[in-house]
Each structure stands twice: as C-alpha cells, then as structure tokens.
C-alpha cells in the first residue's frame, strides 16, 4: 500500500472481518480471488504471501502457494478455511480469538510501531493519532 487514501477495492474486505472466528483470513482469500480474476491492483501484488498473509498461513500451518491453488479451485470462505484445518493445523475458537487479538494490535506499542509510524508519515498522516495499528492503517488507506 502506498501513502494517501485509496478508494476501497471492490471485493476486498477489511482485515477486521472474521471468517470462522479468524480475522484477516477473508481479506487474504479476497486478494487471491481478485488476483485470479485480474481485479487486484498492482500495488497489492508485491506483498502477497508476505506480512499478514505469511502470518496467517503460518498460524494455519499451510504454505501460501498451497492456499493460492486451493482458492483457485473455488469454494466458500468456510470451505477453504476447513480445508486449511485438514491440510495444516486445526485451530480451536480460543486459539483463533487470541491470535486475532494479537494480529489486530500489530503496530501498537510493539516492535512494529516504528514501521507503522513510518507508514503514517509516508502517507501524510503523522498527526492521525486514531491510527494506532496496522489494521487501522489499512482501513484508513482504503477509505474505511
């Protein structure tokens, strides 16, 4: 993501939206679907499989390329998430809740805080104190 507010990408959810009690997963699947359909903006492509995508697949115990292939086969978010549990690690509701709270707070008083401050300044948002996490930054960047 580059600095400055963008219009939301049609078909791309906020990282806060849960699928099966798991934050970010739906957004990652959306990016893969949009990539396949040719609707994912170029500036999103360079980070595919990195950052939060990598954290999410690591949590699920699957490889990103394996997930990409599964998404290309089709199916609902829930079917794909269920497949992740079969192919990778089954995560119970408590694990999903804890992981989601951790991911949703990235950039807030942790080792990613400096990176978030840099991204905010790069976007011209140095004074936007309401942007405390990367989820906040993503939502602001996409006009939510």
Supply database-style keywords.
2 domains, mainly alpha, 53% helix, two-stranded antiparallel ribbon, 144 residues, globular
Outline the structure in words.
By secondary structure, this protein is mainly alpha-helical. The protein folds into two domains: 12-97, no CATH class; 105-139, no CATH class. The protein is built from eight helices and two strands. The chain has helices at 25-37, 42-45, 51-60, 64-72, 77-87, 93-104, 113-122, 134-141; strands at residues 18-19, 22-23. The protein has a two-stranded antiparallel sheet. A hairpin with a 2-residue loop joins β1 and β2 (22-23). The two termini are 14 Å apart.
SSE order and pairing:
Elements: E1 18-19, E2 22-23, H1 25-37, H2 42-45, H3 51-60, H4 64-72, H5 77-87, H6 93-104, H7 113-122, H8 134-141
Antiparallel strand pairs: 1-2
Shape: globular
Count helical runs. Answer: 8
Low-confidence blocks of residues: none
Helix/strand/pairing class, anyone? Answer: mainly alpha
Report the biggest beta sheet as strand number plus sense, adding barrel if it closes: 2 strands, antiparallel
Mean pLDDT: 94
Could you tell me the number of beta strands? 2
Percent helix, as a range, is: 40-55%
Question: SSE order, as H and E?
Answer: EEHHHHHHHH
The largest sheet has its strands arranged as 1-2
Gyration radius from CA atoms, angstroms = 15 Å
Strand content: under 5%
Amino- and carboxy-terminal Cα gap: 14 Å
- What is the number of independent domains? 2
């Amino acid at each position: 993501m580059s600095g400055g507010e963008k219009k939301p990408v049609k078909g791309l959810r906020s990282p806060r939206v849960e699928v099966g009690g798991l934050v970010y997963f739906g957004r990652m699947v959306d990016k893969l679907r949009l990539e396949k359909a040719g609707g994912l903006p170029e500036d999103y492509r360079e980070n595919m499989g990195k950052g939060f995508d990598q954290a999410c697949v690591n949590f699920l115990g699957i490889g990103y390329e394996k997930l990409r292939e599964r998404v290309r086969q089709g199916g609902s978010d829930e079917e794909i998430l269920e497949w992740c549990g079969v192919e990778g690690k089954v995560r119970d509701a408590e694990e999903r809740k804890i992981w989601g709270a951790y991911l949703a707070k990235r950039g807030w008083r942790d080792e990613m805080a400096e990176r978030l401050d840099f991204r905010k300044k790069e976007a011209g948002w140095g004074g936007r104190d309401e942007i405390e996490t990367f989820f906040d930054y993503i939502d602001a960047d996409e006009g939510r």
